[in-house]
Structure formats: C-alpha cells, structure tokens
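Lab notebook, page 48
Experiment: co-folding of the full assembly
Goal: obtain a model of how the components sit together before planning crosslinking
Operator: M.T.
Materials (sequences as entered):
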Amino acid sequence: MASRRPPKFDGPMDLVLRADDLHKRFGDVAAVNGVTLHVAPGERVGIVGPNGAGKTTTLLMLLGAVEPDRGTVDLVGQRLPQGRSAAMERVGFAAGYLPLPDRLTVLETLRFFADLHGVEDRDEAVESVMDELSIRRLSGQVCESLSSGQGTLVGIAKAVLHRPRLLILDEPTASLDPDVAMRVRDRLEQLNAEHDVTLLLTSHDMREVERLTDRVVFLRDGQVIADGKPADVVAASGHVDLEAMFLAEAARRREEEV
Amino acid sequence: MNGRRVGAMVRRNALAQVRNPGHWFLLLVLPVVDALLFGSIGVAYGDGDGPVRLLITATLLFHLIWQVTLAGSLGFLEEVWSRNVLNLVATPLTEREYLASLGIVGLLRTLVTVVLIATVGLGFYSVSPDSAGWVLVPSVVVLLIFGWAVTLMVVGLTLQYGDSAEVFSWGTLVLLMPLSGMFYPVESLPSLLRPIAEVIPLTSVFAATREGLETGSIAWGELAVGALGSLVALALAAWFLDRQLRRFRSLGWISRFT
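Observation: model returned without errors.
Model output:
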C-alpha cells in the first residue's frame, strides 16, 4: 500500500527495535502472522488496526511477555528472550488499561520501579519525573485511590523515570477525558523532543495517532498492510484520513465475521 | 541475581502484606488461636506435660511451614489481584529474583509466627520452643524445603488459573496436616489413609520431632527420609514451575492478568 518510510538510521545496529517475521498463533487463530517492524532511535511509531488485528499480541512479544512461534526480536540491541532483563533496563512500558500496584503510594510505586530499573540516583529521578508530569501532589496517595487520568500519568512516570531509549505504550489515553488525554500527549511529545525517547504506541484514537506519530504501521489479521508516514498511508488507501481508513477496515472485518 | 531488585521486591511484598488486613489475621491471629487451642487440649486431656509439649511444638512447626507457603503464594496473588503482573514483566526483574524475594518474605513471616507461638507456649503452658531438642534444627530446614516446594507449585498453578488458585495457597498444607501425622503417629490414621501418609515427606519429619520430644534423641533415619522426599518434591515443583512459565509465555497467559 504505502511506501516504507525512509530510515533515519545507518544500519541494523542503530535500531532500538528490530522484530523480524513474527508469528503467533493461539489455537486456530493466527493472532500475528509475519509482522516485521524496525524502529530507529527517536522515531514515533503508531501501530493501528481494529480489535483483533494483532496489536497487543505484537507489543507483548516485543516485551518478551509472549514468546513468538516464529521470528526474532532484538530490543535495544538485546536478543529476546535471553536478553530481556538487560533490554528492559532501557525500555519503558505503560498501558492505559493497566492499574498500578495496590497498597503502595505513588511515591513508593515510583521508587519501586526506579529500583527495578536500576536508576542510579533514585530519589532525584523520582522527584524530577514527578515535577515533569506535575504529579507531585499525588505522591502520598495510594495508587488505588487515583482517578483514571492520575493513574495514567503515574503509569507514564514509572515508565519513563529511568530515561528509556524506547517507550512502548498500549492505548496510553484510553478512558481519559479529552483534557487529561491532551496533557498526556503533550508530555509524550516533550519526552520525544527533549529526551530523544523513541515512541512506539497503539491507539484506537486516530487523531491521537496522527498527532503523536510520524510513522504508522497498519495491521490487519496479524499482518502489516501499510507502513509509512500517516499522510502517505492515508493517500495510498484512498481514504480522506486515518480515521476513515480505520473505520473502513473495521467494517470489512465485521462483514467477514458475519 | 541483582540484589537491589530483590530488595525492591521484598519491600513491595512486605508493604503489600502488611497493609492487607487479611494477612494480619493469617500472620498474627491464627497462630495464637492455634497455639491456645492445641495447648489447652493438651492440658485438658493429656497425661503429664508430654501431650502439651507435643501439641505446641507441632503447632509451631505447622505454622512455620504454612507461613512460608502463604508468603509465596499470597505474595504472587497480591500481584494478580492488583493486575500488576504485566507491570513487573515489563521491567528487568527476573523470575529468579522474584522468587528469591518471595522466599525472603516467607522467612520473615516465619520468624514472626515462631516468636508468637513460642511466646504463647512459654507464657501460658510453660512449654519451651526447644522442647524437642536439637532435632528441631534439621527438622526446620527440611520443613522449609518442603514449604518452598509447595510455594513453587502454587505459583505455577496461579500462573495458569489466576486467582482461582487461591484455595491452593492456604489449602494445600491444611490438607497435608491431618495426613502427615503432625499431632499423632500415622498408625492413628484410618488404615486406608496410611499409605498416603507414608509418602508425604512431612510425616517422617514429624515422626523425628515426636521422637525428639519423647526420648531426646535425633532420629537421623526419619530425617534423612524426610529430607530426601522434600528435595524430590522441590525438584518436581521447580520442574513444574519452569514448565508453567514456558506455557505462560507460549500460550499468552499474560492476557489473563491484564
């Protein structure tokens, strides 16, 4: 469909993520069927597609939480699964649907994840990320008492406090009100621009994808059907924008299911 | 093995358990209740101080192994209940580091419960916690090994069945308690159940403890059988957990925890 985006890197060694020919089948369902994804430092990549397209399964394989039936994942230079622990020192992950650990305050949660990620000056890093995300006032609250928006911000804070090279986000603004969602997007753009954090995210909000990413990978039935700049992907699809393309793809999937 | 990550996980586990009122009941109330119950039964129906010494010592040993098991299995269930498993997977924490943290918290719980029961035994029934003599040292070591085997098995079951496996966390040892002749020789059991009792490693350990209480001698033969059985149980449980972890990654069980 769309032409592949010109790479911003010189060779495979520079990639923060190199996933080749990923396959994953659950019973009779081929959840991911030959996905190849190369991401260069500083890129902002959105993985989109209707429900069941294989987005979350792909992300879980990139995190080492699900083992591919076939294919390889090199994450920040580490081959999974052997290098998972070393890789995760430089990778952050947050998901809009994922709560924070119960029974810890926000401050304790951030210190906990800082320790797990081996942050050298833990307390300074935690203070800094709380200021950057304007969540210092929440530091004494237990996580289960946070609102969705506050929880999402803390989730992003715990994912970035170790200054990851790659930030993987699954539905980062799901169930947030527009104001909080906008603040989250602002912070993500800031992290990418000021700290050169590579962004890899999934979202069902196509406006968010168009704003936050400079490259879109469109999945259908576990396969990549388009990979390029959002405008190029839309142009090649013949639709007016990414949302129209998404809706057409979702309708096609519904018809197939019927 | 990274000590800082183990330490962070120990703190997380300890805080989660300390702040859960249910754990206080299991850790502080039940051991005292059991010590009072069995101590008083020993006084009421025993002839001389032998029965009360046996019942208090057996209660102490039962809670020692039970608390190790509870710390591990409920520690993991805390992460399941708060849907924190994926957050942990997306960090450099390794499976061995996580298990090590559960083991350390288990030892801390054991220490608390031993002190409690020893205090009740000494204060109310004049039973010294070391009534059985030196046999207690190898007995405790073997019981901890067996308790750890049960923990690994329950964590493996929880990976597959989620919080439905909760009953195994507290129920496994409750099931083994009457079968392993903790308070009586296995000859007291119905004949149908004796063959089952004979293959449970705990049976030999409790038999050695009873002999220590009655004669002051160390039944090395019984202890060796118990130790061998416990090591076999530990090896089987480690194999089972390893298999479950492979299935966890291969079958995408992580989606059950998000």
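Interpretation: DSSP finds nine helices and ten strands in chain A.
Next step: discuss with group before ordering constructs.
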